[in-house]
Amino acid sequence: MNTEQSFTLPERPEPSPALWLAVTVGAVALWFAAYAQLVPLSDWIVSLLPLEPDSHLQEAIRFFAYDTPKVLMLLTLVVFAMGVVRSFFSPERTRALLAGRREGIGNVAAASLGIFTPFCSCSAVPLFVGFVSAGVPLGVTFSFLIAAPMINEVALGLLFALLGWKVALTYLAFGLAVAIVSGWVIGKLHLEGWLEEWVRNVRSGAVDLPTDRLTVVDRIKAGLEALRDIVGKVWMWIIAGIAAGAFIHGYVPSDLLASIMGKDAWWSVPAAVLLGIPMYSNAAGIIPVVEALLGKGAALGTVLAFMMSVIALSLPEMIILRKVLSVKLIAVFIGVVASGILAVGFLFNMIFS
């Protein structure tokens, strides 16, 4: 006789929306309280180390000890906030908004949507094919392709926090201009025949829009999911970038950087763009390097041209895009975008000289 009995544990009730909101508000309040203590905390950490005062090593470690928690905390807040905002935009809805748009208006819409949509090399192929299959014009697709990595919410949030609102807004305006004009130019060249054949053969399909409405709790969960996905993938790049910035801050002579990225050297902007293409990073990882370069006296336009080149024209991204673009189309893409980045670098140096 079988005497075993099965027991079913009662399901735990889902926390109420009020509790979710209370915990979220409390966590944000703790974030601000902790952020206010970063300077004394970093000074205390450095004071514990047996370092010679005012040495290169001490300056480098001080930069690293302060910037690491600062950038990671800023990234966490920005990513969570934009994860909530992004819950209003699905890939299907994005494609539907862009499909059938005329060039010009479509380029503006695509570049604007790129601010709120995280784009990286790993998502280049499915996004590109998805947009093409939904009937989005090639030039409009390229406006999105350029804007998403270069002026995404992480880049703008960190620029605002580290360099001020004037730099962030000017970068936003120029970055949008590069994305819009570059996409418009590529569209006017009518280079659809330079797509890979399998992409040209993709048939347009219907776009299914989600009909369910997300609750406040769902949107908070979307922010937490963004934290897990984005911060979980980029934190190593951020620390690597801060380490590089710390080395620059502590050891690289100011005169050397000024001679390479100074305002007076006309060739510094093209050199910065060429230097950035072979590198691979993201906005969060490269901004600490930008901060260190500016601290050493490098010209703002030259440094931002370097940053835009690293983010928008990285060699690994070009290799992945080769799956959908011919070599000729990639060359046009690089040439048009690089021209826009050069213009931004020179204009920034003129405005902020």
TrEMBL record:
<dbReference type="InterPro" id="IPR005524">
    <property type="entry name" value="DUF318"/>
</dbReference>
<feature type="transmembrane region" description="Helical">
    <location>
        <begin position="169"/>
        <end position="187"/>
    </location>
</feature>
<keyword id="KW-1133">Transmembrane helix</keyword>
<keyword id="KW-0812">Transmembrane</keyword>
<feature type="transmembrane region" description="Helical">
    <location>
        <begin position="18"/>
        <end position="38"/>
    </location>
</feature>
<protein>
    <submittedName>
        <fullName>Permease</fullName>
    </submittedName>
</protein>
<feature type="transmembrane region" description="Helical">
    <location>
        <begin position="110"/>
        <end position="132"/>
    </location>
</feature>
<dbReference type="InterPro" id="IPR053166">
    <property type="entry name" value="UPF0718_permease"/>
</dbReference>
<dbReference type="Pfam" id="PF03773">
    <property type="entry name" value="ArsP_1"/>
</dbReference>
<feature type="transmembrane region" description="Helical">
    <location>
        <begin position="138"/>
        <end position="162"/>
    </location>
</feature>
<keyword id="KW-1003">Cell membrane</keyword>
<feature type="transmembrane region" description="Helical">
    <location>
        <begin position="234"/>
        <end position="253"/>
    </location>
</feature>
<keyword id="KW-0472">Membrane</keyword>
<feature type="transmembrane region" description="Helical">
    <location>
        <begin position="265"/>
        <end position="287"/>
    </location>
</feature>
<feature type="transmembrane region" description="Helical">
    <location>
        <begin position="327"/>
        <end position="352"/>
    </location>
</feature>
<comment type="similarity">
    <text>Belongs to the UPF0718 family.</text>
</comment>
<feature type="transmembrane region" description="Helical">
    <location>
        <begin position="293"/>
        <end position="315"/>
    </location>
</feature>
<feature type="transmembrane region" description="Helical">
    <location>
        <begin position="71"/>
        <end position="89"/>
    </location>
</feature>
